[in-house]
Structure prediction request, 360 residues.
Amino acid sequence: MDNPLDTQEKYSKYVDKKSPNSPILKNCFNAFWVGGLICSIGQIIANFCKYQGMEQQSANTVVSIILIGLAAFLTGLNIFNKIGKFAGAGSLIPITGFANSIVSPAIEYKSEGYVMGVGGKMFTVAGPVLVFGISASVIIGIIATFFVGG
Amino acid sequence: MNKLGKQTIKFDAPPTISQTASIVGPKEAQGPMAKYFDQCLDDEFWGEKTWEKAESKIIKETTNMVIAKSGIASNEIDFCFAGDLLNQCISSSFGLREINIPFFGVFGACSTFVESMSLGSVFIESGAAKNVICATSSHFCSAEKQFRFPLELGNQRPPTSQWTVTGSGAVILSASGQGPYITHITPGKIVDMGIKDANNMRCCYGACSF
Prediction:
């Protein structure tokens, strides 16, 4: 009989075959409509601000502030993680997911003190995004300056 | 006590599991085994301020409970074998600091409890101890915090992810008694089949069971 424990490759294949897969279609559908809903809310806020006489750029800033504030607030109420579990990337990709990824470690590590706990561990989840996001923007900025004639 | 085959130890005078105690969290209390636990908690913090302090309290109260149930005076218990999942086994070392019984910290992740009972039975069989206490604890929230993501993070867990038990179990092993007995022990070897998914611990451990 073929023994899946013979080699690491065989075991890896065996595990892949036996493990239940994530329900991709369902996840995609939920991510699609929740993500779309969050973006629509953002657009409604932006249109409302412009209707009130704000410029496009200021309206965009107000949208970010409101959505970040809302996501942080819902994280504190233990509601955002339920939305995230349901919607996956739908709530993760918009700016709401970024707010959640900073607020959630802040809450979790509050028990280790405000300086080393909240302050030190706040970026454990979002840290890589910041490091590589900022690095990438610096590199692209340099390229744009020298080659595109920024 | 002698060795059978490659890795099994057979006891001549098998130690007895003379008393047991268990305390579990709210989710475990919803399961089919709820009626077998001594105490089920409604609150994962159990009145403490942090998950780690709550876990320490759970293992402390479980060991106190097993000693009280057994009727054995705590100065007649010779050694304590205990461990948990957290760094430096802080739940058991802080939880059991007032127990005043010589302490062996044990770490074997999921196998910690069986490992502590195996070591305890060798101590009893060898005559070094008459009674030993073996205890283990884990807490879903402290384990997620240490090994995975903050609980408030809105991420999706894959279907293979498991739930770390919130709770603690403790037993007293004695040289003589009514049973159940520990007649043999077979410790496993470390087997690394190259599974890298922290959400699929069962498949990491599965290979070690053979």
